[in-house]
Amino acid sequence: MVRHRDIFDTTVVELEKADFNSPVVLGGFVGPTLTGFIAASYIIERMGLHQIGHVRSPHIPPMAVFIGKKLRTPFRIYTNKGGTLVVMICEVPIDDDGLYEVSQAMMDWMEDKNPQEIVVLEGAPTGEIVKEHKVYCIANERRIEQFTKNGIEAAHSALITGMGGAMLNECLARKVAGTSLITPASINIPDPGAVLSLIQTVNSVFKFRIDTGILEENVKEFHDQLNELMDQYKKFMKKGEKGPVETMYG
């Protein structure tokens, strides 16, 4: 039986050729939170990026994604017309055993594109309601100094796992500039504020003009609903102090 090697190997499949101009590469992946993935997906939509490739691997679950009346593979690569931005997203978890192989394939493909920096967008999971979504950076010492000048502090400590961690690890091995932007994100409720903070930071650092209007409206609506719930809770507690609270059971 003849083994078709390309079917079983991890590889980047280019759908079209594109010219690159020392691009910033953003990555958003499914992890402990969906913050990074949602942020990357929002950037793709709002900047009108087009897909130029996808990753095929036995370590990526064999599933198809149907979005915007199009059938897509789960690990996709997008770029803008000027070739200054590349965004990679994966909508499914990748087998731990395959993270090295997939990250190596991505870096092999990106190396000759001369990436300016590879930036992993992440949400740090917390069970609390986050009032301030401060963004922290994880980078080498020289890059941290540059981020600090932009008002972005370095994280005291962090553990980046999954595909994002594998990409950063591969950046270290190849001496490619690798960074993570991370912000606290609630795991119990939707957290549009975390996504908004990441994108605002990307705009500030890399001088992109990603429209955040929709996100800002979502954050305001979320806070309005949250304040309403808190008011109802306070009224409930105040009523409970005066006497027994009636229940639906009488």
Shape by Cα distribution: globular
Radius of gyration over alpha carbons?
21 Å
Q: Which range best describes the helical content: under 10%, 10-25%, 25-40%, 40-55%, 55-70% or over 70%?
A: 25-40%
CATH class: Alpha Beta
Low-confidence region ranges: 1-5, 243-250
Mean pLDDT: 85
As for the number of domains, it is: 1
Strand order within the widest beta sheet: 1-3-6-7-2-8-10-9
Q: Quick one: how many beta strands?
A: 10
Number of helices: 7
The CATH architecture designation is: 3-Layer(aba) Sandwich
CATH topology: Rossmann fold
What is the SS-derived class? alpha/beta
Secondary-structure element order, N to C: HEEHEEEEEHEEHHEHH
Q: What profile does the largest beta sheet have? A: 8 strands, mixed
Descriptive report:
The protein has helices at 5-8, 35-46, 99-111, 141-149, 162-174, 192-206, 213-242, and strands at 11-14, 24-29, 50-56, 65-67, 70-72, 75-79, 85-90, 117-126, 136-138, 178-186. Mean pLDDT is 85; it is low at 1-5 and 243-250. The N and C termini lie far apart (73 Å). The chain has 7 helices and 10 strands. With 250 residues, the protein is of the alpha/beta class. An 8-stranded mixed sheet has the order 1-3-6-7-2-8-10-9, with helices on both faces. Strands 4-5 form a two-stranded antiparallel sheet. The protein is 38% helix and 22% strand. The protein has a single domain (5-240), classed as 3-Layer(aba) Sandwich (Rossmann fold).
